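Risk register update: the risk that structure generation would not scale has been downgraded. Supporting records follow, first protein first.
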Amino acid sequence: MSKVAVVQASSTLFDSKAATDKAIGLVIEAANEGAELIVFPEAFIGGYPKGTSYGAVIGSRTERGRQEYLHYYEGAVTLDGEEVARLAEAAQEFKVALVVGVIERLGNTLYCTALLIHPEDGVVGHHRKLMPTGSERLVWGFGDGSTLDTMDTSVGRVGSVICWENYMPLMRQAMYAKGTQIYCAPTADDRDTWAASMVHIALEGRVFVLSACQYLTTDDVPDEHHVDAEPRENGVLMRGGSMIVAPSGEVLAGPVFNEECILYADIDLEDKVKSHLDFDPVGHYSRPDVFSLSVDTEPKDSVVFD
């Protein structure tokens, strides 16, 4: 039996140092409760700019929007940067594995990335979101198949699928085939329908699902940054909805809305094994004679120098 934790909290938008400070404080809190794996929401470090248009309409951009993008870019992190190193140090010190949503800066492009941080080996994986949703495509680049990473931990094999990637059936199938046992779903989707998707994925993949979403309000947005969409009542931009689900579909914790919290659950990988008696989506229930999936895991560089 192992204890896992899901963090539901607000990011410190566009301030990676402050967001890392907050993340480490939450790591300490969850580790002190005995958690061996801690999952943070999508874009927790760097920020999810909910409701921001960046001054973009078809055929035109504004100078204010470009200035806002500059602010966002400056608040992103690099894989070899100080913030990521501090997270790895915290994982080692408190003997926990981490899945942390960050905005990653690579060259002149930003990516929505989930870091896989091992307590002994540091950053062992980084999954860049393959398919940003809607207007996210304005500010985030597309990941490729080279970052469909997993991480072996004391809790089990951990994989991460970000937000609406969870609606991509072939993406899910690929992650099941990689042997994912703890399926982490950092997200910005706080709708009632999200919970049903997480229960479905737990049953479909026979996996433990750990879904983490932020609780974010307009009070968390810097004064110089504009929110162009109307928030919910009381200025709520993201209301959470984080949860933990067993391979049986049983909800072990959550969903919780409209507050910051850490959710905990005790999980046993034997429950996953038992659930495969009647279903294995990449084994005895897969029918490879009829259906097959080919996954390209080669990195895709725009320029290759021979």
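Supporting record for the second protein:
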Amino acid sequence: MTANQLATQNLTLRYGSREIIGGLDLTLPGNAVTAIVGPNACGKSTLLRGLVRLLDPASGTVTLDGADVHRMSARALARRMGLLPQQPVTPEAITVESLVRLGRFPHQRMLSPWSKADQAAVEEALERTGTAELRDQPVDQLSGGQRQRAWIALALAQDTELLLLDEPTTFLDLRHQLDVLNLVADLHAEAGRTVVMVLHDLGQAARYADHLVVLHAGRLAAAGPPAEVLTAELVESVFQVPCQVVPDPETGTPLVIPCARIPAGARSPRTATV
């Protein structure tokens, strides 16, 4: 079995009586970058919460390398998996460096001092995310993009082999979106990190992911290599958008081109009159 492989077996996740994910069987490959895509409210964020056991399953199991995550201690799981949620809550008046230092909590032992290894992990996370110059700034006074990068730095400082990111490019302009996605690619290529991330942009998902998971109404619509999964038929079926899928001129990965909007009066041919 590949290391850092997450899997679900007949997983059902609910909020109260409302089912969000139903009977999901899914394998997320280890040592790879996986992108989870799908329409709004299809269960992408809920699935991530279930994978890191922030949401208990109504039925089914989640396993990490074959072991049930619900049988692991919280600290042991936090040393294996790190999660950046979609809308993290920032502690009041905390500075960027103090926030990033929280990522080292799973590695701390009772009464153990802050170590050089801890500080080195924090410094690397600040540098990688371009937030070193913001270290003394209160997080709640940053722009949305700066705040997002600070939270990504916290996730990196946790130094887990498996990193789950829920819409990590939210609030970022195009340049910083690409910075974050290139960072993800580097973490995988250089450090062997396994990454699972929720994305909205299908072109970015196809370009940066080795494996694509498409959800629709809480069910698995498709999974596999982007070039095999991302077809015009699938996009129209899942997203209700007629399109063409062409090779990206830079990477050759699938690129979705929505069809031009057809004026309402031109949707059906009219009978000519004389």
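The first strand starts at residue 6 and ends at 15. On this basis the risk owner (M.S.) recommends closing the item.
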